[in-house]
Amino acid sequence: MVSMVTVFINLWKWQPHPYETLLSREFYFATWQLSWLIHGNAELPKSTAVPNWTPCPSTCGAGIQFRERFCNYPGTTNISRNCHGETVEHKVCHLTDCPVDGMWGHWGEWGECLAGRQIRSRQCDGPSPQHGGKECYTDDNTRDVETRTCYAITTPPPRVLEPPTIYGNASTMSGGNVSLLCLTTIAGVSVKWYYKENESLPLHVVQPEGTTDLLITGANIQNIGNYTCVITDNGLSSKAHQEVTMRESAAKIISLTSKPTHITDGATVQLTCEALGYPEPIIRWGYKDTFGNPYVPPPVKYTDGGKTILIASYQSILYGGTWTCNAVNKLGADHRDITI
């Protein structure tokens, strides 16, 4: 009986079949149990050896490879239950990259309108050719450059005011006069002179109304320097600069006055000495009494850089005599007397 069971089992090997039924599977399992009880060392079912992978179905790009095994390894003595592990395996295969043909990308912006024509271009980058793919197709209707007729709209350049031009003699002696003329080719503009960059004109400097002239009468250390002519029109402006200089000259007194001219005791007397020269002269005062005796002047108040003497409550016995104005610079000296 044992031999018959063993022979029966060896004749059957488990292998899935389309018409296999649940009942037949249970029969095999029961038969295996019986064989195990009889022999005590029956072998478990085994699968076949691992077969080779199927060829990669794709000549380029990605593909899927398979391999399949069956639960029918030779020498298996039991046909009782499924073998362990998966029956079918698969994996991704990749032989080589597939060629990618180039395609035209988007058109660029139209260029500047020149001679009635505009040009725009595009690149073969949508995508670019790869892995031996073809370049973008080009013929009379498909190309990388396109042109069209255009009409240029000219925009006038922004309006600017050309700087004015200054004419005239900008160098003078101390006490001399200067005349400058600011000219522009633009009609109807406003012309105004400034001292330095934007300061009001100093004393003895004027711009006559309705003119573009600048007049300096009696040039001195206070009114020489840089002058600016500014033209303006509808919110636009432009300017030019001119440096007025003074030539060196020796000190020279041009006036020595007394106020009042008729002096009485108790009055306030003002003596003023005006001198020209460049560098600017230094003023020094001297005094002699009515008898011609020189001595230090009595206490008085000096103003205006020493050019003016103020004598308060004049007394002839103290201040009467001769007053001398001395003007000195590096090029020379001058003096003038006044008797009160």
Brief characterization of the structure:
9% of the residues lie in helices and 35% in strands. With 340 residues, the chain is mainly β.
Please give a structural write-up:
This protein has 340 residues and is mainly β. It folds into 4 domains: 2-94, TSP-1 type 1 repeat; 99-155, Single Sheet (TSP-1 type 1 repeat), CATH 2.20.100.10; 165-246, Immunoglobulin-like, CATH 2.60.40; 250-339, Immunoglobulins (Immunoglobulin-like, Sandwich). Helix content is 9%, strand content 35%. It is built from 3 helices and 19 strands. The chain has helices at residues 2-11, 22-39, 316-319, and strands at residues 62-68, 88-94, 117-121, 145-149, 165-168, 171-172, 178-183, 190-195, 205-206, 213-216, 225-233, 236-246, 249-259, 269-278, 282-288, 301-303, 308-311, 322-329, 332-339. It has a 4-stranded antiparallel sheet, with no helix packed on it. Strands 6-12-11-8 form a 4-stranded mixed sheet, with no helix packed on it. It is elongated. Pfam families: Ig_3 (PF13927), TSP_1 (PF00090). InterPro entries: Compl_asym_regulator (IPR052065), Ig-like_dom (IPR007110), Ig-like_dom_sf (IPR036179), Ig-like_fold (IPR013783), Ig_sub2 (IPR003598), TSP1_rpt (IPR000884), TSP1_rpt_sf (IPR036383). Residues 158-245, 251-340 form the Ig-like domain. This is Ig-like domain-containing protein. It comes from Sinanodonta woodiana.
Spell out the blueprint of helices and strands.
Blueprint: H1 2-11, H2 22-39, E1 62-68, E2 88-94, E3 117-121, E4 145-149, E5 165-168, E6 171-172, E7 178-183, E8 190-195, E9 205-206, E10 213-216, E11 225-233, E12 236-246, E13 249-259, E14 269-278, E15 282-288, E16 301-303, E17 308-311, H3 316-319, E18 322-329, E19 332-339
Parallel strand pairs: 6-12
Antiparallel strand pairs: 1-2, 3-4, 5-7, 7-10, 8-11, 9-10, 11-12, 13-14, 14-17, 15-18, 16-17, 18-19
